[in-house]
Amino acid sequence: LLFERADGTRFPGKLETSIIKGEENDEGIVVVIRDLTKQRELEEKLLEKEKLATLGMVVEGVAHEVRNPLNAIALAAQRLLMEFEVKKNEDEFKDFTGSIISESRRLDKIIDDFLELARTPREEPQIFQLGSLIEETATLSQLEAEQKGVQFTVDGNGPIDIFGVESELKKALVNMIANAISATPAGGEVRIVCSRDDESRQAVVRIIDSGEGITARNLDKIFHPYFTTKEGGTGLGLAITARVVADFNGTIDVESQPGQGTTFEIRLPLG
Questions:
Q1: What percent of the chain has pLDDT over 90?
Q2: What's the predicted TM-score (pTM) here?
Q3: 195 DSSP β-pair partners
Q4: Average pLDDT in the 245-255 region?
Q5: What are the CA-CA distances from residue 10 to residues 3, 6, 13, 175, 235 (Å)?
Q6: For 59-117, how does the pLDDT look when each residue is reduced to its tens digit (9 = 90+)?
């Protein structure tokens, strides 16, 4: 059943009634409405994980079958380019073989990204320090920002322990920071703000850029696999990030307006 709150928002719930009797045999009824929002969210997360686990097994098998002929095609093109002498149309021959090699590599990268989206983490989760991870990630991204002329800063407020697979979160953060730098023009700014919300028992990571922003039409699509507005993009980066955050039992939200930048907020349970 769907119920409506005082503010007009709706939520799934369960209606329970009980009859009570007074001392003089008068009767009344007690109505209890249980909010099942959290339960439904948990059920959906579990179902999504089961789907991804099944998909991962299928994808690994398909990827193996695709990669074998793909590698053979790339190797054949490399041999043609290096070992055979062309007597006419040499430039055209080099362009064609070069395209075969580059497209084979691009397909191989797409297979890697799809495997990353579908597979479950291979490492055991453990407690790690979020601040140290963000500093390490920021160091990897600093040079990219400097080369583009983008100001890059990191703000934090003390030690924050997280439980999960550290390498998975690192990959997700590297991808998101790279997206933020890519979307920000020279002279702009990208900020990473890490904080601890003791009331909700969550760590909060905000990735803020002053870039081109995201249209309202695209905001609901950015975490969908294969949706991208970047030329040459696979559209799997943010889908993988959303999967990683879900594995941590966290949430990811985005606020953006065209021309005014974008803020991604990741919330993760404290370790």
A1: 21
A2: 0.65
A3: 204
A4: 89
A5: 5, 9, 9, 35, 32
A6: 677 777 788 888 888 889 888 888 888 888 888 888 898 899 888 888 888 787 777 77
